[in-house]
Amino acid sequence: MTAAVASAQASRDDAVLDISGLVRHFTGPAGTVRAVDGVSLSIGRGEIVGLVGESGSGKSTVGRCAVRLDRPTAGQVTINGRDVTRLSKRALRPLRKDFHLVFQDPSSSLDPRMTVGAIVGQPLRLHRLASGDALRDRVAALLAQVGLRPELARRRPHELSGGQRQRVSIARALSVDPQLLVADEPTSALDVSVQASVLNLLADLQRERRFGCLFITHDLAAVEYLADRIAVMYLGQLVEQAPAAELFADPKHPYTQALLSAAPVPNPAAQRSRTRIVLSGELPSPLDPPAGCRFHTRCPLAVDRCRTEPPVLRRIVEGGGRRQVACHLVADDGTAPDASAPGDAAVP
Amino acid sequence: MTTSTAPPALSVRDLSVVFRTPTRVVHAVDGLSYDVAAGEVLAVVGESGCGKSVTSTAVMGLLPPTASVGGSIRLGGRELVGADESELRDVRGREIAMIFQEPMTSLNPVLTIGRQVGEVLRRHQGIGRREARERAVDLLDLVGIPAPAQRARDYPHQLSGGMRQRVMIAIAIACDPAVLIADEPTTALDVTVQAGILEVLQSLRERLGTAIVLITHDLGVVADIADRVLVMYAGRGVEQAPVDELFGAPRHPYTRGLLGAVPVPGRRRAEGERGRLQEIPGLVPSLTEQPDRCTFEPRCSYADERCGEQRPALRTVRELRVPRERDERREGYERDERHEAACWHPVPVHLEHPEHPEHPEHPEHPEHPEQEAAS
Question: Which PANTHER family does its entry note (chain A) (predicted)?
Answer without folding.
Answer: D,D-DIPEPTIDE TRANSPORT ATP-BINDING PROTEIN DDPF-RELATED, TRANSPORT ATP-BINDING PROTEIN
